[in-house]
Amino acid sequence: MKTMKVTFHVNDEKVTLHVRPYETLLETLRERLDLIGAKEACGVGACGACTVVVNGIPLRSCLVLTPEVDGASITTIEGLGKDGKLHPLQEAFMEKGAVQCGFCTSGMILTAKALLDRNKRPTKKEIIKTISSNICRCTGYKKIVEAVEKAAEKSV
Amino acid sequence: MENEFTTVGKRVVRSDSLAKVTGEACYTADIKLPGMLAAKVLRSPYPHAKILRIDLKRALKVPGVKAAISGFDTYGIKWGVFRYTKDHPMLPTDKVRYIGEDVAAVAAVDEETALEALSHIRVDYEPLPAVFDPEEAMQEGAPQIHKEFTNNINIHVNIDVGKVDEAMNKAFLVREDTFKAAGEAYAMKEPYAVVASYKNGFLDLWMPNAGPHVRAKALSNLLKMPLNRVRIRHINSGGAFGGRSEVSPGDLIASFLSIKAGRPVKLVLSREENATSTRQVHDIIATVKTGMKKDGTIVAKDYRAVYDGGAYSSTGPIATSIPFYVYEECYRFRNVRYNGYRVFTNKGIRGMYGCHGRAFLAGNEAQMDFMAKELGMDPVEIRLKNGLTSGEVTATKSKITSCGLKETIQKASEKTGFKKKWARTQRFKGIGMGCVAMMCGFPMGFRSGSSCYVKMNEDGQVTLVTGVIDNGQGNESLAIQVASEVLGVPMEDINLVNADTEATNLDPGSYSQASTFVGANAVKVACENARRKIVAIAAQKLGVKEADIGLKDRMAYSRKTPDNKMRISWAAREAFFRGEPIVGTGSFFPKIDFEREWVSRPWGQMAGTFSFGTSVAEVAIDSETGKVSIPHFTAAHDCGRPINPMAVEGQMEGSIQQAGVATIMEGNLWEGGFLLNPDLLEYKVPLACDMPDIETIIVSSRDPEGPFGAKEGGLTIRMNAHSAVACAVSNATGTVFRELPLTPDRVLNALQRKKGVKR
What 3-state class would DSSP assign to B123? Predict the structure, then answer.
């Protein structure tokens, strides 16, 4: 089968792969790169469990074809912590009890990270609006919103 | 007294959360094993059809296919939770009974090859007339789905206490209403997945499950293998909500494929398959007739509830009963009759749900409000009047021990200014209240109890072995927290080995609300037994009495002279010297009436204790569109002593989402036997922007038998949040709701019914 050569950065590491043209970024991350933090929960872009940050923008990796990210810089949940330290969002999610089953957590944290990267002090309303792209079935979102607020306070 | 514990009662960070925020937590679909194959399932396109022939030959010839199976490759054993409900073949050979039923499966080197092979399986069907409406299915002459069950009546639960007709005749006020509700989608975030690996006569299995031991037992029966060769392994679960309680056809399929291929097999269902072919939630029609005295006392209740049971029995007797019980455990019914019918239809297999029974429960509560109004009372007064109190016995003879129902009603109503808001209802605004009780465990024979084993290593670190399972609620952290408190070591010193049937002992699982009351109690007993050994050594070494020894922060110390202390790890080493290491086993078995049976003997002690709770919803209706919004939601919960208040709040908040907000937006839609909204685009799950401002109130009580006084936490709100919303909408429209979910069209209709009446 014909494959395409794709080069991109994942968590600051350069990757070159030969992929089928219809391979999704989610498949590539999970199957080829063993980055299992991105989850497949719906496969149609409805839930956000597969969210990763591509060039600063949170994208649903189940809807992105890998050849599309040629040259891009991607952050997954595995690359969020730096130098053995957790990202403030990761810490806040733990401390605020914003994690239950955990299946949405990676996508939720990465969606929030993209928000905080472009807006250091979002209002509660902005946080709610932003994370409304992601489904959580366990928490009722209250503690997730609180965690994002706390992380925003910390990182200022 | 609040400071008497080191970790219990504290808002501790859950032990499982680090792996989950770093993406390291492993779920079933994440597993990779050497030589692993991908499985795919061929499903029935018919709601009801005879299977004439299944031919796998051409599929097996597809390059890369390593195994293919149909029901003809199994032992043909039918699964059922009860002796009288063994009707589910998992892979049928006689006929299919719903669209999406598992018919055949293949395992291949990759998913694409497996999908390709499915298209080469030939199945000859002879379509049969089908039935989709439970009321129709009960009629003479309807298509028969199982020949053993006449008129498709799967289960009939009949409870008759006191003199219902006599009391109803004498009642001052009588009202009868019928309520309908569509089943919701579990929509757990993780689609179902199974990994099976058969090697040397041993089968290892990973799947999201709510009770590894009951799952292993089912598979041991279906595969004719002894229990020690069917090993359900620990794995994270992406939500269960009642939908992962029972053995799944996929478990059997992956197992047989692995046995046939001699290689590990992974089966991952799509979101749509998760909705059509794992468990579904029952649609319900409930008729509620209530008689009251002039003072608001409920004198009689007469119920008829019909549950759309789908194609197989599943946990039928339990599903047919639970809505009634959580209600009779909350209110005083001297005369009550319940006729619950679970009826087969040609729809998917159904199971229990965390919010199971919303038509019945919300119906009862909304009707009560309108009766109260007629009697010049308000919802608070009528609930306080009829609510059970500590020491009382329910209609079916369960004794209520600790009971904070009254406090939850009072606190929730004070916090929301309920009485005032109710008395002066504003146009298109409403307030409503829902109450319920929740059994902490229910009779499951010898599986009702839990056992735990704990050992301390020479460095003072602890290994805890328990069957307690976590589907996201925080049960693992709960077990560790309890052990930490008893043993005086921090939570991070405790390693948990849990929910792995090779290592752990029987446990009821996490679907009967028993994890805290039963599972954590066993952990506590085991740790206390180990603690005694530490204390004995420390007392000797420190030269004080055993009663004077305290354990905290890895130290054993004299309570009278705290400077007189030693490391707990020293005691552990000393214990090894003496040939009596610090180990402990412990069990907890709840005081339940084990003669109790769901159908044949529906009375006797249901559970060791009960939780209580009250939800209050405040709603606003857009009078033009009928759209409901829920600006505020308040929930008060008696969960005994909360072990981790933050985790309990999380359960309550999630319940407000899954039961409360669902009341205005969630429901499965059917066209005959075809599920119209199996994915998350068509089925709308509440998002952050749909959520009300939430206020949670923990009414901390002390259960005499719960671990540190704790009881079930959270499900109580899951079982009454729908009532609060339905009551609030009924209050706003001025008419008792008829059908859930309360979508804009239904709300507009309700406003229409009420038109002409000045509000």
Answer: strand
B687·A46 Cβ contact <8 A: no
Closest CA to B244 of B396, B349, B91: B349
Q: Cβ contacts (< 8 Å) between A90 and chain B: which residues?
A: 21-22
Chain A residues inside the 8 Å CB shell of B238: 39, 41, 101-103
Question: Tell me, what's the ipTM?
Answer: 0.98
Mutant choice from A35, A50, A138 vs B, greatest count of B C-beta within 10 A: A138
pLDDT one-digit tens code per residue, B359-403: 999 999 999 999 999 999 999 999 999 999 999 999 999 999 999
A30 plus A73 within the same structural domain: yes
Option in B16, B26, B653 nearest A143 (CB): B653
| CB neighbour list of residue B569: distance below 8 Å, 6 or more residues apart | B458, B459, B460, B554
| Two tokens, residue B340 | 């619950």
Q: What digits encode the pLDDT tens for the residues B11-69? A: 999 999 999 999 999 999 999 999 999 999 999 999 999 999 999 999 999 999 999 99
Identify which of B513, B487, B673 has the alpha carbon closest to the alpha carbon of residue B586: B487
Positive or negative CA dihedral for B368, B374, B375, B381? positive
Which domains are present in chain B?
17-24+449-588 (3.30.365.10), 31-128+193-268 (3.90.1170.50), 280-443+596-753 (3.30.365.10)
For residue B105, what are the CA distances in angstroms to B199, B225, B579? Answer: 20, 21, 54
CB B691 to CB A44 under 8 A?
no
In 10 A of CB B433, how many CB atoms? 29
**Residues A56 and A115 occupy one common structural domain:** no
Range of the domain at A148: 88-155
Considering only CA atoms, which of B285, B396, B405, B277 is closest in space to residue B348? B277
Instruction: Report the alpha-carbon distance of residue B319 to residue B317 in Å, rounded.
Output: 6
> Which residue among A80, A100, A105 sits closest to B650, beta carbon to beta carbon?
A100
CA gap B207, B266 in Å, rounded: 10
Cα–Cα distance, B128 to B148 (Å, whole number): 17
Q: Decide if B23 and A46 are in contact by the 8 Å CB cutoff.
A: no
Q: Does B536 touch chain A (CB under 8 A)?
A: no
Residues of A in Cβ contact (< 8 Å) with B474: 100
> The domain that contains A59 carries what CATH number?
3.10.20.30
B contact test, residue of A39, A53, A100, A105 with most B CBs within 10 A: A100
In contact, B93 and B51? CB cutoff 8 Å: yes
Distance from CA of B219 to the nearest CA of A (A): 25
* pLDDT at residue A156, rounded to an integer: 61
pLDDT (mean) for B234-249: 97
Q: Is residue A22 located within the same domain as residue A73?
A: yes
- What distance in Å separates residue B82's CA from the closest CA in chain A? 30
Q: Residue B30's closest chain A neighbor by CA?
A: A36
A45/A93 same-domain check: no
If asked whether residues A43 and A97 sit together in one domain, one would say: no
Looking at chain A, which residue has its C-alpha nearest residue B273?
A: A42
B189 contact residues in A (CB cutoff 8 A): 39, 41, 47, 49, 101, 103-104, 135-138
H helices then E strands: how many in chain B?
A: 21, 31
Which residues, including other chains, have CB under 8 Å from residue B634's CB and lie 6 or more apart?
B412, B415, B416, B615, B616, B694, B695, B696, B697
Phi/psi at B5 (5° precision): -110, 155
A73 and A9 in a common domain: yes
B83: number of Cβ within 10 Å: 6
- Chain A: residue whose CA lies nearest to B659: A140
Does A39 contact B189 at a Cβ distance shorter than 8 Å? yes
Task: Check whether residue A49 and residue A95 sit in a common domain.
Answer: no
